[in-house]
Amino acid sequence: MTLLMRDRENQKIGKEIGKEIGKIFGAISMGKDLGLSDEEIIARLRTKFDLTEEQARAYLDETE
Q: Are 50 and 60 in contact (CB under 8 A)?
């Protein structure tokens, strides 16, 4: 594998991760707009995105 091929693969992976994180923050925003409690948002993040409670809470904390 050449360096260029590896760089392209890393860029692809980075874009996929970025999209997933964007979806998580979108879900948090929608949950807040709907008046859900932090605990309900965390529960839904854990279910939809297969996150641990710590991961879900960290994403939620980043939005505040």
A: no
Contact 21, 11 (CB under 8 A): no
Structural tokens at position 46: 């854990």
Rg of the Cα trace of the chain? 15
What lies within 8 Å, CB to CB, of 31 at 6+ separation is 40, 41, 44
**Residue type for 7, please?**
D
Condensed to tens digits (0 to 9), the pLDDT of residues 19-34 reads 999 999 999 999 999 9
**pLDDT computed for residue 58 by the predictor:** 97
